[in-house]
Amino acid sequence: MLADELSSRQKLILGLVVREYVASATPVGSRMLSEHYDLGVSPATVRNEMAHLEELGYLMHPHTSAGRMPTDRGYRYFVEQLMGEVELPLAERRMIRHQFHQARREMNQWMELSAAVLAHAARSAALVTAPQTDEVRFKHVELIHVHGLTALLVLVTDTGLVRQEVLTLMRPLSQASLSRTAQHLNDALDGLTVKEIDHRLTELPAFEAQVTTVVRNLLRWLDAHAGREMHQSGVGNVLAQPEFATGEVARRFLDFFEGSTFLDNMLSSLLGVRTGDVHIIIGTEGPWQELSDLSLVMSRYGVTGVATGLLGVLGPRRMSYERAVSAVRYVSDLLSDLVCDWYGL
């Protein structure tokens, strides 16, 4: 059915049913709508319109209730035709921006904060991946003396990822000597990829070559895994919903959300999505059976051709799409700005 084939009254009633069902998790009846909203028509007329919406596939009628609830098609019509452009309240946006301003200038902390903010704002489970480039590049290394022949290597990549590795030294070295070595490597390796670092190894003194080999191996691992590292938050928000009251449904959600295939599904779903665009998968619309009870609101953030990552919220089909979409869009824009600042764009 085309968008303009629903009458204005049917659109109004469908929107009210979606919002009431999202708020209460209880099927919505015609009498309830007539008593709570000035629709200008009798309860019988409202009931007839709801029956017509059911015939068209936008509502369904649970056997145990006189009320109706939205179908996936009804939710889809709502998000595309009735919801409109929505934003988080100004006070909430200011609070979120202040939280990011207070955070340290570390990409890992930005990712953790983003997941927590999204989960709270959308009242769902949230996930965020770090921005990834085509090839991870070296940015900075620190060498910290621990004791005896032990030192700690701290690597920072161009995307802000931080990795640590314990080094066993061939001979005791002072902190001053370790710092000089780190500074020399920061100058020599600045902005290089794994392949480019390989070509420099033979030019370096023995200890610098040892450190650089560790750096190269860490970068190689990040090349393979950086874009697959997820920061998660808000699982309890989903498990607290009545749809997940049974152990079987809750277990299926946890297996999917924490399983290795979930990120693969997200990555494939967002292959052609531009940064900043919000992509919504509702219930059975997705290609995976595990998501039939859930909806996913996702976005790609960052700078195309420089570094991009993914973020999204996952919850029951009966989620507040207005809050989910507005939260995902706002945090996506914030992270894109941070990526721009990080790369000096």
Task: List its salient traits.
345 residues, alpha+beta, Arc Repressor Mutant, subunit A, Beta-Lactamase, Enolase-like, domain 1, 3 domains, five-stranded antiparallel β-sheet, three-stranded antiparallel β-sheet
How is this fold's topology laid out?
Layout: H1 8-24, H2 30-36, H3 43-55, E1 59-60, E2 69-70, H4 72-82, H5 90-102, H6 107-122, E3 125-129, E4 138-147, E5 150-157, E6 162-168, H7 175-189, H8 194-200, H9 206-225, E7 230-233, H10 235-239, H11 247-258, H12 260-269, E8 278-282, E9 294-303, E10 307-316, H13 321-342
Antiparallel strand pairs: 1-2, 3-7, 3-10, 4-5, 5-6, 8-9, 9-10
Kindly describe this structure.
The mean pLDDT is 85. A five-stranded antiparallel beta sheet has the order 7-3-10-9-8, with helices on both faces. It has three domains: 3-82, Winged helix-like DNA-binding domain superfamily/Winged helix DNA-binding domain (Arc Repressor Mutant, subunit A, Orthogonal Bundle), CATH 1.10.10.10; 90-130 and 229-342, GAF domain (Beta-Lactamase); 138-226, Enolase-like, domain 1 (2-Layer Sandwich). The longest helix has 22 residues, at 321-342. The chain is built from 13 helices and ten strands. The protein has 345 residues and is α+β, with helices and mostly antiparallel strands.
The count of strands amounts to 10
Sheet bearing the most strands, described?
5 strands, antiparallel
CATH class of the largest domain: Alpha Beta
Report how far apart the termini are.
45 Å
Based on the coordinates given, report the CATH architecture of the largest domain.
2-Layer Sandwich
